[in-house]
Fold:
Amino acid sequence: MNWMDKLERKWGRHAIPNLSRYFVVAIIVGFLFSLAAPGLLSYLSFSVSEILHGQIWRLFTWVFMPSTSLDIFGILFLVCVLSWASSLESFLGTFRMNVFLFGGMILSDLAGFLVYLVSFLVTGTGIDVYLSTYYILLSLLLALAMCMPEGQVLLFFVLPIKMKWMLVVELVYMGYEVIRIFSNAIGAYGTQNGILLGLMASTQMIVAIANMFLFFWFASIHITRKHRKRQKEFQAQFREPRPGSGISKHKCAICGRTEITNPELTFRYCSKCKGNLEYCQDHLFTHQHVR
Structure:
């Protein structure tokens, strides 16, 4: 049992279901504040100097800072976030979903303090980073791709693409953006100031990716051990069906479809269900768990 299992056993009952919904609501409330009471947001934003002067709430209230405008694209992004989060929570569980999101917040706070310290040492004046939850919420899609790499999504709602390739493309693009930000800043302001400005501009992006990989690195021991045991038990009980025998290897416990009747489907076992229950891609995240 690793440390995350121990934490879940001790604190799992306190986990907040559907935590991502509160993040989305906070963004909407922050946007409304920006329209009705813009001065209020100045008391909610992340500021190391103000935190050091006793305004501790700024460690958390920066989640209200608008990360997207509520136009058609902003609303579509928030709707997609709710869909990604629902699927990811059904895969990871409520407690681990809480660890993922709160971990992103904590790493963002630490990164904000680090950038403030570096800027103070370099320029003699501490500079605060603008923090929002945009990239933390965007990383939900990347985390879902790591959990279900063979699943398919519709790129631009038209082109089908496997999630593992979407993950690679998105990581390459974000890496390119970080490099572009640093190169432009260094070219415009020199090496020292350019590195500092590039660090400030790309902090949120770097933190979101770091949080995702750290989470799966710590969780991988638990997943590997449990799945290795289940794989050995399953392989000891079943053999590969003969080609042409009409016997399927995979069968959805909900709809009964197999890889023979529907070869386009992907089948997965549910780690939360008791017994070796297998589901197709349409029912993997929507079924009721068997305890």
